Amino acid sequence: MNQNFILELNNIFRNVFDDKSIEITPETSAKEIEAWNSMNHILLINEIEKYYNIEFELDELISINTVGDILQILQSKVNK
CA-CA distance, 61 to 70, in Å (whole number)? Predict the structure, then answer.
């Protein structure tokens, strides 16, 4: 996994969830971040899309269970 993606996503997670203590890994899931509920999930996806200037497809959104899932999608969409 691209370490830059992890660092960038970590900052996005911290901002969306307003929690500077968040440290994500590819294995991090919504169960581990108390504020990661359905509404904040939408905000998170929106912020990721804006940051990387991409759009997630519906099937991609449905497949997201962990940060690793987000990373895989990003790697397929973003040239870094």
Answer: 9
Could you give the CA distance from residue 38 to residue 6 in angstroms, rounded to a whole number? 22
Kindly give the residue spans of alpha helices, DSSP state H, lying in 1-80: 3-16, 38-52, 58-63, 67-77
Quote the tokens at residue 50.
Answer: 């804006």
Domain count, the chain: 1
Give the tens place of pLDDT for each residue, 17-76.
999 999 999 999 999 999 999 999 999 999 999 999 999 999 999 999 999 999 999 999
Q: Is the pTM of this model over 0.85?
A: yes
Q: How far apart are CA 27 and CA 68, in angstroms?
A: 6
Q: CATH number for the domain including 21? A: 1.10.1200.10
